[in-house]
Amino acid sequence: MSTETDPAPRARGILDMNSFDLGSGEVSPAVRRRLANLGSASVLFYRNPIEMVSAEGAWMIARDGQRYLDMYNNVPVVGHGHPEVIEAVTRQMRQLNTHTRYVVGVVDDYIEALKATLPAGLDNVVLTCSGSEANDLAMRLARRVSGGQGIIVTENAYHGNTAIVTEVSPAAIRNTALAEHVVTVPAPSRENFGDDIAGGFAGAVEAAIRQLRRRGIAPAALLVDTIFSSDGVHADPAGFLVPAVAAMRKAGGLFIADEVQPGFGRTGEAFWAVQRHGIEPDILTMGKPMGNGFPMAAMATHPEYLDAYCDDYGYFNTFGGNPVAAAAGHATLRVIQREGLMENARDIGARLRAELRAIADRSPCLAAVRGTGLFIGIDVCEPDRPRTPAPERTLRILEALQGRNILTGSAGKFGATIRVRPPLCITRDQADIFIDTFSAIMSEMEGGDAGYAASGRYRPAGHEYV
Amino acid sequence: MSTETDPAPRARGILDMNSFDLGSGEVSPAVRRRLANLGSASVLFYRNPIEMVSAEGAWMIARDGQRYLDMYNNVPVVGHGHPEVIEAVTRQMRQLNTHTRYVVGVVDDYIEALKATLPAGLDNVVLTCSGSEANDLAMRLARRVSGGQGIIVTENAYHGNTAIVTEVSPAAIRNTALAEHVVTVPAPSRENFGDDIAGGFAGAVEAAIRQLRRRGIAPAALLVDTIFSSDGVHADPAGFLVPAVAAMRKAGGLFIADEVQPGFGRTGEAFWAVQRHGIEPDILTMGKPMGNGFPMAAMATHPEYLDAYCDDYGYFNTFGGNPVAAAAGHATLRVIQREGLMENARDIGARLRAELRAIADRSPCLAAVRGTGLFIGIDVCEPDRPRTPAPERTLRILEALQGRNILTGSAGKFGATIRVRPPLCITRDQADIFIDTFSAIMSEMEGGDAGYAASGRYRPAGHEYV
């Protein structure tokens, strides 16, 4: 099955998926229009893409009136259309929106509130527009500080969309090889390393450092998404990152914690996933949920590391750190803290995993349930073959969930991990809707497996990036 | 004078500038706080930075109650706090904010309105968060399509802040050399090329192509800011870019028009500066004024160029193309068109240049006035030595303008060009305030030149980027 050996997402997936429809006019006018405007960079979810018109809390409403429970989008962290964030943005837009060449108090108010949540020593915060920009700058700092060029990432990592960040994002690479200065390590999973994930992962990082050195390249950084989202969600045992980070530091490189996905309380037990591992990173990047959808991100680091970079280059970001972004970020942070959304992520997440494990126990097609807080991965396998990933079956489950008004996505090297990652405001009732629906789909699928005609004409597209 | 041979901006400029103050406590608590939060990446305008609290139209209001006429910020193109843009953003935030993995009609409505303004053939639009992201992607497309790696830019170019874009931004580079694949050409000025700017600039591009080839590097693109903002504003004669673009295409490379600064009507005579030159670029990037301050930007290109890149790599941008950005962009575009702001830029700009030329004619310290629409450069020189740029005098004029409540900035290889670039909604009365104030300052300065104690302790910092 080609999807098992070629897990890279296809940005032209929607064209591929619907190619059998284009001639017969089955593509909707809305989709046709989208393809004409965005072209190859347009990747839509699902073979039958959804046209959305509104959203509120954990619900999204489509053009045809269908209401979908959003179990996937990690950007609207306090809920779609949260009034407090909207009010903060509107008020600040009326007041003042400008760049950081002037002093604006609300920007510093926000940075100070943010710094109070961060691991020790990360006292300078560079506000950017996207996680990509934050990781792009983080890599440059690591190279400047270490003197090396080599970057070690996981084998299905995704860190963003700029040129140098795409180089360290195997999940975004299609027809080209990895650059010489990039070496990958397997995801920190039981499948890859058995019971000693910490030791196995550190050993893989050490081997990658040796591989870089054989190429004459000094290591600059170990860069990981601290929940390993695109690698299939790997959270346990907490602390497994410690020896790998130590190995990189011993080799003269830095540890960059990419918290763009797990940050801001999603992992339930700590505000930043790296804190769950008991690590103080050299650089921490953040993004997606930071402004509940307002475009903003940041890189936090030690002042001397930023100084070193700024000795060589000036850095300015026109939109980064504007007071409207600060207002959005501050309101989002305030709601997360006041409404106890980290604790909600911990509690609802634990409930979801317990229920999902019960379903997995009785399902021959579910191999494992992983995660922490509201970041959950469910491995889908061939019936009674837990070591055999089943990407086509995963797509069928995603589409069955779509058909019953629940939005999810997939991830992992083989595209065979269902990823569950709802807004942190999700309620117990909403979690139960997901569980009941998922349970019913798994029961029916196991009963009627042969009846599903796998077309083989589509690929697991578009599941890596968001 | 060190500033004449070292025009590169200093991101630590504010620390350098105020270093004599830090010990004696003369730095305000607000500035001290800013430095602690943003560190070396913080570059503030003016030796005495301004703390801003609000803004409306072309006015910005500081903490101390001073009202400043904003003659510099090209982001709030339809005016600070324009109610129509704010209303559009607020309404869309309430309705729906999500990514491009779902179809959302307002995104396509906006792209189609935008495409109607663009040069022919640029039918695919990739929406990003920043001009940096747009230029970063544009460079990758040019490299993929041309097969080359070499990029030719002007010698004081600024194109943004990602790693590969910083490489082609000499204005941002301090203590390192240009990369081997980057070759610069002089700005297209009369000083550099005499009366034949078109021929001279094309000759410089041809020489740069030869230089790349001698290094074994094929040219990928000529990348220019089509108003040459950081090089000091070079607009005339319209059409001078034509032979340079032809030379690059003949060599197999592409022409990338960086319209992040001049786009959206600012140049008065055309919606895109490149149209004034009669050129259809291969790739056009846009940003700053696009959403009147909402973080958004874009790259527009031929579908086959985007296809080629997407054969190798997937591209997705979480915040790029979200419906709130589309609403902001569409409202901004609507206001520009309905209120005739391009025509206002043409008319007020012509009036400003005429008045400025009259002042320059009687001032021994002003060598030239250039520009088109509301993008104006005023060269400052040593008295009666029009070929000798005067960066320290330029700073004194900027500070004198600050002292009389007018915001401007500087640019150019020597930091000796005053840059005038107000919101496009500026009125004739506001333009007259600027002219009267500038005229008075020039008269006083010429009368009391010797009385000004040039400290030599500060540098022309922070004027290149915005």
From TrEMBL, chains A, B:
<dbReference type="Pfam" id="PF00202">
    <property type="entry name" value="Aminotran_3"/>
</dbReference>
<dbReference type="InterPro" id="IPR015422">
    <property type="entry name" value="PyrdxlP-dep_Trfase_small"/>
</dbReference>
<protein>
    <submittedName>
        <fullName>Aspartate aminotransferase family protein</fullName>
    </submittedName>
</protein>
<dbReference type="InterPro" id="IPR049704">
    <property type="entry name" value="Aminotrans_3_PPA_site"/>
</dbReference>
<dbReference type="InterPro" id="IPR015424">
    <property type="entry name" value="PyrdxlP-dep_Trfase"/>
</dbReference>
<dbReference type="InterPro" id="IPR005814">
    <property type="entry name" value="Aminotrans_3"/>
</dbReference>
<dbReference type="InterPro" id="IPR015421">
    <property type="entry name" value="PyrdxlP-dep_Trfase_major"/>
</dbReference>
<dbReference type="GO" id="GO:0008483">
    <property type="term" value="F:transaminase activity"/>
</dbReference>
<keyword id="KW-0032">Aminotransferase</keyword>
<keyword id="KW-0663">Pyridoxal phosphate</keyword>
<keyword id="KW-0808">Transferase</keyword>
<comment type="similarity">
    <text>Belongs to the class-III pyridoxal-phosphate-dependent aminotransferase family.</text>
</comment>
